[in-house]
Amino acid sequence: MAEKKNILTYAGLKKLEAELQDLKLVKRNEVAQKIKEAREQGDLSENAEYDAAKDEQRDIEARIAELEKILKNAEVVDEDVVDLESINIGCKVHVLDEEFNEELELKIVGSTEANSLKNMISNESPVGQALIGHKKGETVDVETQAGIMKYKILDIKRNNE
User: SS3 of 35, please?
Assistant: First the structure.
């Protein structure tokens, strides 16, 4: 079975690459130093610093493996050529939540980059799925856990604008 493609924006790709470099070049060395210092303290069986450093090393190695897998299967969306006729990944969408009469700005990104606190929603989320393919001026019904939400699409731009 083929691995799922990880859809990323260019900014998301750069962010993950920078995190991977930091983990490999900086964090690995830091934790190796902690382990070395803890070993020098003698008995490892009751050495909390050693156990903590080994746990941190395991977490770092797991994150490195996760990032390498994400990047290996990455498909980058070129935001400079995103079609602005309809909503797709790489778009920044200005919508009106008709129930609360509130305007929202949502960025449509791949699931790897999604961050609801920064209004970056996944193309796989209920809102993202409902918006994709629609055009400026249309009203979209989105089925959420809170019920049906209605969003009127006010504007579509590129994420990097």
Answer: helix
For residues 95 and 148, the answer to whether their CB atoms sit within 8 Å is no
pLDDT at 57 (0 to 100) = 97
8 A C-beta contact, residue 71 and residue 3: no
Q: Which pLDDT tens digit goes with each residue over 24-73? A: 999 999 999 999 988 888 777 778 888 999 999 999 999 999 999 999 99
Q: How many residues does the chain have?
A: 161
Whole-number pLDDT of residue 66: 96
CA separation, residue 137 to residues 8, 38, 93, 117, 155 (Å): 27, 63, 12, 26, 8
| b (16+ CB within 10 A) / e for 32-64 | eebbeebeeeeeeeeeeebeebbeebeebeeeb
pLDDT at 17: 97
Helix axes 28-39, 48-72, angle to 10 degrees: 160
Global confidence as pTM? 0.79
Q: How many angstroms separate the CA atoms of 20 and 28, rounded?
A: 11
Separation between Cα atoms, residue 31 and residue 56, nearest integer Å: 7
Report the helix count and the strand count for the chain, using DSSP H and E.
Answer: 4, 7
